[in-house]
Amino acid sequence: MNPKSTIKGRGAQLNVSNRFFELSHDIRDDFLEYCQKEGETSDKNKTLYLEVFPKTIVNKVESPDIGMAYSMNPYQGCEHGCVYCYARNSHEFWGYSAGLDFERRIMVKKDAPKLLEALIKKKSWKAHPIVLSGNTDCYQPAEKQFEITRQCLQFFLKYKHPVAIITKNALILRDLDILKALATDNLIGVNLSITSLNEDTRRLLEPRTASIKKRLETVKTLSENGIPVNVMLAPIIPSINSHEILPLAKAASDNGALGIAHTIVRLNGAIGEIFTDWIKKTMPDRADKVLHQIESCHGGNLNDSRYGTRMHGEGKIAEQINMLIRLARKKYFKNKTMPKLNCDLHESFKDGQLKLF
Known about the structure:
metal ion binding, metal-binding, iron, 10 strands, rSAM_sf, alpha/beta, 12 helices, PA0069 family radical SAM protein, seven-stranded mixed sheet
């Protein structure tokens, strides 16, 4: 890889066209050449935080093969920059590209805590685990500044409402005080994503995420404080991290995780173009091999939207990956299981305190 040929600190290396727009914007080679000769930068590569004002914050998840019923996203777009991220496509609905815009144009929902409280106080609302976040990471760098996730967790605690968290950032430990209080009543479960034990791989795939060392330390700290942790080995990418399944599972178990989950990478919508461009720039020696192996897991396509097969794939390579996951569970997670979250307390705390009568 030639570092000069890539955009520092970003996963995607281009802005692909938005499928909803008739016109597109391209950076031409002659413009890049002019900038180089003049000593100017063609792209400042800055992250912008843009406040938005949604009317609701909790989404009902209709997909039958996703293990959640409700999710909420304090942020849209994600500065972590994971090149494979399925959430990239959703940025097109906001009028941006699924490529670099997804990492550099972050929508901030400051009203999220207020909207959450209004929902869970409704008489018609029945407690069910709400997942932070089903789309983009609720502990991405923006959270350090805005603390929206922390405010939401305070309401989950106040109203004794179950919540699950998906993240790959050690920033979650900032909120250990609230998480411990939630865990006292079995109201919290954490899913922490770890896709590799190799820092070089992590930097390429997920340029602005916490290091592997910090993530494993996070699993250990959460577990030692009574907070149940499931490690997401997701996605598994053939010939990039597929050989790490057993070592990853062992490291997760050794640090206190109660389980693992996985998906096989699928490159839907604009992600196929983004990932293909990225791998040809960062791993040119194995780009074709990886792309063909991904295709072999999804009926000959990079793109796979079929319920029931899209997550875990099909074919020989997918079968081998899924077999290794089963072996890892049997070997490292025997007699371990994630507890079911408590949905029974919330009704008595709908006004923020225990009802005595």
